[in-house]
């Protein structure tokens, strides 16, 4: 029995690696995964040096220690401190769109955002945002985008907000497409 075990110690190390790998699925801490990697290195040592158990253990410990010290911190930082995933309508916060129906504090307007029409309201109770103005989404309130202007409407001057006749753009008051960037 001892002779068989000594000749097949690589299989024992593989079994240990498999058990540690499966146990990692329950913890998701990456510690057991690094230990499983050390057991795999020990299995390689057992295949190359079948009679030297002490060498297999040393190789496994060195590999596990190196992975715990070097690879695990990188994995933990990447997984636990990565970019936060935005779900639902939160993905549009910070995106820019164009006003297609005037946004007024007393009445909702509409914006075109990523090819979709969104109901929108201004970020404060004083701002009216004209059609054609580029806006940025500050937050989502229910199904309404709360926006603020990031550019002037097409055909407007900065100081007086006087209307300038656009060069035969849209006849219905709505822009045909997004203004040039």
What does this structure look like?
The radius of gyration is 32 Å and the shape is rod-shaped. By secondary structure, the protein is an alpha+beta fold. Mean pLDDT is 81; it is low at 157-181. The protein contains 4 helices and 5 strands; from the N terminus they run ααααβββββ. The protein has a 5-stranded mixed β-barrel with strand order 1-2-3-5-4.
List the helices and strands and how they pair.
Elements: H1 2-7, H2 9-27, H3 31-48, H4 53-80, E1 96-101, E2 109-113, E3 116-122, E4 134-141, E5 144-149
Helix pairs in contact: 2-3, 3-4
Q: Major sheet, described briefly?
A: 5 strands, mixed, barrel
What number is the mean pLDDT?
Answer: 81
Low-confidence stretches: 157-181
Which percent range fits the helix content? 25-40%
Q: How many helical stretches?
A: 4
Sum up the structure in keywords.
181 residues, 4 helices, disordered C terminus, 5-stranded mixed beta barrel
Précis, in short:
The chain is an alpha+beta fold and 181 residues long. It has helices at residues 2-7, 9-27, 31-48, 53-80; strands at residues 96-101, 109-113, 116-122, 134-141, 144-149.
């Amino acid at each position: 029995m001892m002779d068989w075990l000594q000749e097949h110690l690589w299989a024992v190390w593989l079994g240990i690696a498999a058990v540690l790998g499966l146990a990692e699925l329950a913890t998701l801490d990456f510690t057991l995964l690094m230990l499983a990697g050390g057991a795999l290195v020990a299995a390689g040592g057992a295949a190359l040096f079948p009679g030297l158990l002490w060498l297999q253990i040393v190789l496994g410990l060195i590999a596990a220690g190196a992975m715990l010290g070097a690879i695990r911190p990188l994995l933990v930082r990447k997984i636990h401190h990565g970019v936060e995933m935005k779900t639902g309508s939160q993905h549009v916060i910070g995106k820019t769109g164009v006003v297609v129906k005037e946004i007024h504090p007393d009445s909702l307007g509409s914006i075109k955002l990523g090819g979709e029409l969104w109901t929108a309201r201004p970020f404060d109770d004083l701002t009216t945002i004209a059609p054609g103005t580029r806006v940025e989404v500050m937050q989502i309130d229910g199904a309404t985008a709360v926006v603020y202007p990031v550019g002037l409407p097409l055909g407007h001057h900065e100081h007086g907000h006087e209307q300038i006749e656009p060069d035969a753009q849209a006849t219905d008051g709505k822009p045909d497409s997004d203004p040039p960037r």
